[in-house]
Amino acid sequence: MVPSSLYNLSSVIGLDVGSNLLHGSLPPGIGLTLPNLERLYFGDNQFIGPIPVSLANASKLLYIDLGLNNFSGPVPMTLGRLQDLYWLNLQINQLDGDLSFITSLANCSGLQTLSLYNNQLSGMLPDSIANFSTQFQGLYLAKNKIFGTIPAGIVNLANLRLLSIEMNLLTGIIPVNFGNLQKLEAVGLNSNKLSGQIPSSIGNLTRLFKLVIDGNDLKGSIPSSLGNCQNLQELYLSENNLDGTIPEEILTIPSITKLLLDKNSLTGSLPLNVDKLEALWQFDVSNNKLSGEIPSTLGSCTKLEFLHMGGNFFRGSIPPSFSVLKGLQELDLSRNNLSGQIPKFLERLLFLQYLNLSFNNFQATCFWWRKKTGKNLAPTSSLGNGFLEVGYAELLKATDGFLSNNLIGVGSYGSVYKGFLNGIGTTVAIKVLNLEHQRASKSFLAECEVLRSIRHRNIVKILTVCSSIDFRGNDFKALVFEYMPNGSLDMWLHPNETEQHQFRNLSLIERLNVAIDVACALDYLHHHCEKPVVHCDLKPGNILLDADMVAHVGDFGLARIIHKDAINYSQTPSSSLVVKGSIGYVPPEYGTSGDPSTYGDVYSYGILLLEMLIGKRPIDDIFKDNLSLHQYAKMMLPERVVEIIDHRLLIGGIHEITAQSENNEKMSNNMQDCLISMVRIGVSCSAESPKERMEMKDVIAELQRVKDFFLAVGQQVGN
Ligand SMILES: *[C@@H]1O[C@H](CO)[C@@H](O)[C@H](O)[C@H]1NC(C)=O
Ligand SMILES: *[C@@H]1O[C@H](CO)[C@@H](O)[C@H](O)[C@H]1NC(C)=O
Ligand SMILES: *[C@@H]1O[C@H](CO)[C@@H](O)[C@H](O)[C@H]1NC(C)=O
Ligand SMILES: *[C@@H]1O[C@H](CO)[C@@H](O)[C@H](O)[C@H]1NC(C)=O
Ligand SMILES: *[C@@H]1O[C@H](CO)[C@@H](O)[C@H](O)[C@H]1NC(C)=O
Ligand SMILES: *[C@@H]1O[C@H](CO)[C@@H](O)[C@H](O)[C@H]1NC(C)=O
């Protein structure tokens, strides 16, 4: 509970206890005891009870955030007295009652954003919304029980950028002059009971990038004026009663990525000019009454990953141009009148996960997909996606039949073999996925998806992939990497007894170099890729060393590409069941509900750095009873750091130094400074709170500074 004395700090202007595990209710007199309050942030906690009416007495309030709690009861009518109110967020609570308080909010002349998303509010949306401030920009009312029509006056809100009233019980039409809302960027009206036609004035919304009106009862044809919305990225018109043909105009919007028109009664054939849709990623026209041939121009939409055209009257064959749709993951052409042979190129679509050709007139082809077994060795071919594909037989030969002598690593998703690949004339590491493991296929796809788009000196290079069938007819998937003769960092840090002669002690400068290499790889993944990539499984076993001891980050089987929406207005819950890394290296927030984030990688990096300096794994026996590697290191900072440093480092280090210098006391003091700086970085990266962790670019700069200092001193003393 928040101590009640906090509510008596009458001079307080900002009170932020957001994103904690606080509970209890707000005191009824909060607005009287905190008369100077401007910002109240209580969001993302477990508060219950009503929203106090007295809030309206804190007349300077600008921001109110009570979202993501369990507040209940009605929204006080008095909030309209807050003349300066700018931002009111009550989303994701249990608020009920009707929407009459909205009328009072028309008095808040500076109101910019109102979110009541995901509550139990019912009643009609009052006409008075037309009198909202002209500053008003964002209205979020989705996921309530609002009924009645959309007030015609809503079109007065000249600065409205975001309208989200989906998942309610709204009836009636979309206002005819909806196009007056010239500033609109995203519209969600889906999953209501709206009827009538889509107003053609929508074509005037040239800033629109997301229009979601699926799951209503809309009739008539798709207005061709939509083609004027040249910034549209996502158009959802599914599950209505739309008829007529698909206007050519909407197929000329170059920015469109998702075009969903399924479950309507659209007729005619698909326009031929679909080749303008360069960004198209998901296209669904299934369950309509479309006819004619599938335009071969669809093959120009090379970004397509989901193509659903089932349940129509398409005839003819699958266009050969589909062979270039290398990213296809789902292709559904079922329930049409397609004929001809099933094209062979489908077998080369590496990412295809779902293929449905059922209920057509395709002719039998004799198990073409089995032909990729060893005896019928397809020549190595370029897939155009940056990978060269390799056959099963070739890998079998490269590894002497996956001989155990060639086994260089075993992980949960598969085994890694060393082999010589004739095709490229070099020694390689072949990671064979254990497809009996449920996640192995996913991990294969994740790794392919990430690795095909990244290149960096400190990231293992993928040479080729194999997605095939073994001699027994079972699926076989493998990834082929450049071979790293010096094995993993784990082997160097923790050699077992038989390996000790093989892996000499790594000197401080070598460890520092590895730390910088890994930091560079992470900085690249987080900030310099097209979309940020989170590795999710950084640990010494996944850091590989080449012949020159340069470190390369490997194993992207758990990696995630972060797709950021411009406006994240429909939150999708994250799955807490997803595997997110290895024990000891997983940041604390992943244990609760945190999605994989770049901060998480920074945490793992911090642990890795401490492990490299202290020589103990985070899961070592001494780290239990609430003492973690992080706390252990933090506790010893700064004077006692030397007591916990990997003793091999001190012996090696001091020995190296005394060999070249008499001034070893000065030197070991300098070395101690370096170690303290590095442990500090490790501790800071592995801070409990994600936001306190360092940025990788700062880590690189700091480590580089330590290295320069270390080398400069070495030079000086050596001379
Ligand atoms: C608080 O606001 C209410 C109206 O909402 C008003 O009647 C009351 O007088 C105010 N109290 C004080 C102490 O200003
Ligand atoms: C809004 O303002 C009008 C006139 O300025 C006033 O009559 C009305 O009581 C105000 N409503 C609220 C809830 O403050
Ligand atoms: C909007 O405000 C005007 C003037 O303040 C008023 O006459 C009108 O009734 C209000 N409209 C609604 C729908 O509340
Ligand atoms: C679009 O806006 C223009 C004025 O900006 C107007 O003349 C035209 O009628 C509008 N179009 C539609 C379809 O509403
Ligand atoms: C399907 O195609 C065949 C020829 O391939 C044709 O005879 C038949 O009439 C077509 N059926 C429909 C429903 O279009
Ligand atoms: C393939 O499509 C048909 C018809 O649309 C459907 O009945 C069937 O369930 C689909 N098959 C799979 C495996 O999803």
UniProtKB/TrEMBL annotation:
<keyword id="KW-0677">Repeat</keyword>
<dbReference type="GO" id="GO:0005886">
    <property type="term" value="C:plasma membrane"/>
</dbReference>
<keyword id="KW-0067">ATP-binding</keyword>
<keyword id="KW-0418">Kinase</keyword>
<keyword id="KW-0597">Phosphoprotein</keyword>
<feature type="domain" description="Protein kinase">
    <location>
        <begin position="402"/>
        <end position="710"/>
    </location>
</feature>
<dbReference type="InterPro" id="IPR001611">
    <property type="entry name" value="Leu-rich_rpt"/>
</dbReference>
<keyword id="KW-0808">Transferase</keyword>
<dbReference type="InterPro" id="IPR051809">
    <property type="entry name" value="Plant_receptor-like_S/T_kinase"/>
</dbReference>
<keyword id="KW-0723">Serine/threonine-protein kinase</keyword>
<feature type="binding site">
    <location>
        <position position="431"/>
    </location>
    <ligand>
        <name>ATP</name>
    </ligand>
</feature>
<dbReference type="Pfam" id="PF00069">
    <property type="entry name" value="Pkinase"/>
</dbReference>
<keyword id="KW-0547">Nucleotide-binding</keyword>
<keyword id="KW-1003">Cell membrane</keyword>
<keyword id="KW-0812">Transmembrane</keyword>
<protein>
    <recommendedName>
        <fullName>non-specific serine/threonine protein kinase</fullName>
        <ecNumber>2.7.11.1</ecNumber>
    </recommendedName>
</protein>
<dbReference type="GO" id="GO:0005524">
    <property type="term" value="F:ATP binding"/>
</dbReference>
<keyword id="KW-1133">Transmembrane helix</keyword>
<keyword id="KW-0675">Receptor</keyword>
<dbReference type="InterPro" id="IPR017441">
    <property type="entry name" value="Protein_kinase_ATP_BS"/>
</dbReference>
<dbReference type="InterPro" id="IPR032675">
    <property type="entry name" value="LRR_dom_sf"/>
</dbReference>
<dbReference type="GO" id="GO:0004674">
    <property type="term" value="F:protein serine/threonine kinase activity"/>
</dbReference>
<dbReference type="InterPro" id="IPR000719">
    <property type="entry name" value="Prot_kinase_dom"/>
</dbReference>
<dbReference type="InterPro" id="IPR011009">
    <property type="entry name" value="Kinase-like_dom_sf"/>
</dbReference>
<keyword id="KW-0433">Leucine-rich repeat</keyword>
<keyword id="KW-0325">Glycoprotein</keyword>
<dbReference type="Pfam" id="PF00560">
    <property type="entry name" value="LRR_1"/>
</dbReference>
<dbReference type="InterPro" id="IPR008271">
    <property type="entry name" value="Ser/Thr_kinase_AS"/>
</dbReference>
<dbReference type="InterPro" id="IPR003591">
    <property type="entry name" value="Leu-rich_rpt_typical-subtyp"/>
</dbReference>
<dbReference type="Pfam" id="PF13855">
    <property type="entry name" value="LRR_8"/>
</dbReference>
<keyword id="KW-0472">Membrane</keyword>
<keyword id="KW-0732">Signal</keyword>
